[in-house]
């Protein structure tokens, strides 16, 4: 196993496209790190530079402390698992798994001693004589992983390996890959555009946008303490609600929040966690509200007076929860800014409610806001306050 380090990494393609810029990241020995971001964020380019399939325009890639910028891919002792499996259709599962070992001139006995235990660990021992065309998508992906594992690489690079699978199989394989890593502990860099995959699989998660690292942290810290608006809106499903609100001076000197035309007092615990809020009294800030931090007030014993009266536009019962959508009131401040922040659901709030909620399309509802869980961002810098 090995460490992987990226230092001031940059990649500019011949047409002038800047794919990666000023990228710094250190991956510890045995760590599972996930790169996540929208299409075009540069995550696959970073992976390909680690593999040696792309040459950095600037900066360094170091494996176990050694700069490998000029080292050929086959000499880096790194294995890759691709989105499309890349199995040889005319070879059996056994031959596919052992092909790389044959290229490295290992003897038949040595190949067998590696392939058979790996196949057993992956649960594909009974498939070794079959061809890839006889396998399901999940089985083919296990073969691809087995081919990488038997090489006993220093590091494992995975480029959206589950994206071709159906939803149910993706969930199963997601858990399987995590369990597999716990057993083999190979240093792993995993690329995905699916933030659910990132949150459930990574020891750490790196959020990328436009070739830059936006935030790298533990999955739960990314969720609880996003450093900027992009991370706040990207991590979480349904996405965080982002609304422009004015901070007003409140009774006793404590500021209150003008949230969609409703005055909501800020608690001492909120002010202690966000001491800079006092500087924004009389100004607007971006308020982030996780959907689960909105509740049906009728089901609560005490809503503390922090409630919004809304009309339900859409209710989606999912069994264990109910997802409800509400248009922002017409008197919400700075409506245009709110629309800009919520491109996918302009001027709409989303709530994750209890399945016992009476929320139904076309009916009014009183929403309780968990004020202690609010997030605040500067409108200009878009950084967390």
Question: Please, could you describe this protein's structure?
Answer:
The chain is α+β, with helices and mostly antiparallel strands and 385 residues long. Helix content is 25%, strand content 30%. It is built from 10 helices and 21 strands. The strands form 5 sheets. Strands 6-7-8-3-9-10 form a 6-stranded mixed β-sheet, sandwiched between helices. Strand 4 (58-63) and strand 5 form a beta hairpin.
Give a brief outline of the structure.
The chain is of the alpha+beta class and 385 residues long. Helix content is 25%, strand content 30%.
CA-based gyration radius: 25 Å
Stretches where pLDDT falls below 50 for ≥5 residues? 331-346
Q: Specify the CATH homologous superfamily of the largest domain.
A: P-loop containing nucleotide triphosphate hydrolases
Query: Which CATH-level-2 architecture of the largest domain?
Result: 3-Layer(aba) Sandwich
Question: What is the topology?
Answer:
Blueprint: E1 4-12, E2 18-27, E3 32-36, H1 43-51, E4 58-63, E5 66-67, E6 78-81, H2 93-103, H3 108-122, H4 137-149, E7 155-159, H5 167-184, E8 187-192, H6 195-201, E9 204-209, E10 212-217, H7 219-224, H8 229-234, E11 241-248, E12 256-259, E13 262-265, H9 268-273, E14 284-289, E15 294-296, E16 307-311, E17 314-317, E18 322-327, H10 335-341, E19 348-353, E20 364-369, E21 375-377
Parallel strand pairs: 3-8, 3-9, 6-7, 7-8
Antiparallel strand pairs: 1-2, 1-4, 4-5, 9-10, 11-12, 11-14, 12-13, 14-21, 15-20, 16-20, 17-18, 18-19
Helix pairs in contact: 2-3, 2-4, 3-4
């Amino acid at each position: 196993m090995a460490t992987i380090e990226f230092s001031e990494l940059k990649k500019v393609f011949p047409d002038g496209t800047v794919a990666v810029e000023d990228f710094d990241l250190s991956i510890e020995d045995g760590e599972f790190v996930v790169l996540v971001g929208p299409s075009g964020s540069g995550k696959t380019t970073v992976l390909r530079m680690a593999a040696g399939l792309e040459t950095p325009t600037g900066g360094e890639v170091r494996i176990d402390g050694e700069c490998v910028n000029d080292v050929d891919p086959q000499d880096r002792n790194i294995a890759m698992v691709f989105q499309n499996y890349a199995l040889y259709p005319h070879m059996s599962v056994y031959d596919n798994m052992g092909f790389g070992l044959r290229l490295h001139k290992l003897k038949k006995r040595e190949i067998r001693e590696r392939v058979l235990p790996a196949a057993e660990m992956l649960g594909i021992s009974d498939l070794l004589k079959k061809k890839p065309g006889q396998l399901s998508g999940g089985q083919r992906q296990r073969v691809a992983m087995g081919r990488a594992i038997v090489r006993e690489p220093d590091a494992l690079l995975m480029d959206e390996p589950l994206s071709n699978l159906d939803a149910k199989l993706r969930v199963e394989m997601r858990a399987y890959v995590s369990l597999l890593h716990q057993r083999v502990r190979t240093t792993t860099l995993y690329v995905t555009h699916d933030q659910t995959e990132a949150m459930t699989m990574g020891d750490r998660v790196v959020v990328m946008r436009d070739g830059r690292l936006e935030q790298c942290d533990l999955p739960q810290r990314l969720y609880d303490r996003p450093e900027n608006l992009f991370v706040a809106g990207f991590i979480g499903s349904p996405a965080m609600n982002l609304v422009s609100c004015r901070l007003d001076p409140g009774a006793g000197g404590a500021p209150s929040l003008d949230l969609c035309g409703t005055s909501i007092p800020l608690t001492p615990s909120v002010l202690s966690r966000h001491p800079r809020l006092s500087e924004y009294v009389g100004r607007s800030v971006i308020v982030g509200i996780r959907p689960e931090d909105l509740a049906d007030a009728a089901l609560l014993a005490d809503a503390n007076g922090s409630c919004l009266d809304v009309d339900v536009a859409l209710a989606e019962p999912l069994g264990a929860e109910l997802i409800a959508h509400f248009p922002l009131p017409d008197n919400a401040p700075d409506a245009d800014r709110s629309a800009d922040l919520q491109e996918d659901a302009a001027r709409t709030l989303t709530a994750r409610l209890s399945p016992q909620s009476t929320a139904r399309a076309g009916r009014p509802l009183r929403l309780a806001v968990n004020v202690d869980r609010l997030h605040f961002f500067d409108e200009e810098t878009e950084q967390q306050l």
